[in-house]
Amino acid sequence: xxxxxxxxxxxxxxxxxxxxxxxxxxxxxxxxxxxxxxxxxxxxxxxxxxxxxxxxxxxxxxxxxxxxxxxxxxxxxxxxxxxxxxxxxxxxxxxxxxxxxxxxxxxxxxxxxxxxxxxxxxxxxxxxxxxxxxxxxxxxxxxxxxxxxxxxxxxxxxxxxxxxxxxxxxxxxxxxxxxxxxxxxxxxxxxxxxxxxxxxxxxxxxxxxxxxxxxxxxxxxxxxxxxxxxxxxxxxxxxxxxxxxxxxxxxxxxxxxxxxxxxxxxxxxxxxxxxxxxxxxxxxxxxxxxxxxxxxxxxxxxxxxxxxxxxxxxxxxxxxxxxxxxxxxxxxxxxxxxxxxxxxxxxxxxxxxxxxxxxxxxxxxxxxxxxxxxxxxxxxxxxxxxxxxxxxxxxxxxxxxxxxxxxxxxxxxxxxxxxxxxxxxxxxxxxxxxxxxxxxxxxxxxxxxxxxxxxxxxxxxxxxxxxxxxxxxxx
Length: 475
Known about the structure:
Blueprint: E1 3-7, H1 11-23, E2 27-31, H2 34-44, E3 48-52, E4 54-55, E5 58-59, H3 60-70, E6 75-80, H4 85-93, E7 98-101, H5 106-135, H6 147-160, E8 173-176, H7 183-192, E9 201-205, H8 211-219, E10 220-221, E11 233-234, H9 236-239, E12 244-248, H10 255-267, E13 269-270, E14 279-280, E15 284-289, H11 293-298, H12 304-310, E16 313-316, H13 326-341, E17 348-349, H14 351-359, H15 365-378, E18 384-385, H16 399-402, E19 408-412, E20 418-422, H17 430-444, H18 449-456, H19 460-474
Parallel strand pairs: 1-2, 1-3, 3-6, 6-7, 8-15, 8-16, 9-12, 12-15, 17-18
Antiparallel strand pairs: 4-5, 10-11, 13-14, 19-20
């Protein structure tokens, strides 16, 4: 139920207004002078304030900013029997939403109140979404302490702590890295930790828009520019005015659009489709790609001049497999976040689960890690997630990461252990490989012979016999 605060010294009018509003489901309270209104407004926390200009103990225009200070989100509708253009202008300058002259038509007043409530709801929703976006988009959302990530954070901090990103022609930033490494987080940190944080952040996926619509979406169009252009439309560059536009996956942008984008960056102006005049833009341009743009330039698939214009500042996000123990920090973060999301008690990883997380190559990077942890939570019954609930294979590490050449093979046997088969050099015998696997399964189960046998797909007696035989040979 919305609350309307009526500040009116004419008692009959005040009562009629309150009765009208209550009849339409609003809660209405009234006061008849400045002093009472100012003392009551903070406790009422109104959504709308109906304010008379002339009150017994003061001027409503002088009271207006004081009421807004106590109830900043309330919409103020000014009423007076002594209306003129100057009073209306002064009321709007003081922060009034609307201005009505007496005698007030109660049906019209009800419509104005409803419109004020609608605007307040929209503003509250936008404010909530903006705050939610800010809370999940700062530099502190980039988790990890590895040298590469620390350097990324230092560069972002250096850029955002100065006024350089607020300049009319701020330096463009190119963010590179494999899919799932967090390029969007870096772009958001540049915006929400920087001087443009109160202005829009607009993200554009360059692969999601067909080439025929891309120019219209970015630069806008005028009515009649093409068959379906039944009205004019602002482009995303204009929507992002004063803020940041994030061009994700720019490496796949059409060559024709690359030329137009280059013009927009260099001259800080755009031309909507079908328009005859250029429009200036004031946006910070951040681009990202998982493509090697050097190779794309050499293949004549990306403009060299645009490439160099974009990479005034370049941030390269390393793959997760190159970030050391950052993977454990991220795994614990996703574990806590997904448990909270599903309304489950907090879980923990077993040691073998952490070994598996550490051993996997994570070709899908942070995105893959998040999805795997999410799956593990849903497949675990207790308060601990074991290796069996981490649905990845531990033998998927890159050969160069393991220091192997083309003649090597590796076999993952769990718990972060590997058997390296170097057929051109020193290679274990089949019997030795068997003993390594049997011993690893036995140790993994904590000496539980029956469980180890089930894991290996043999009988308990067969496992005991083979372990004893290997032990006797070792003596």
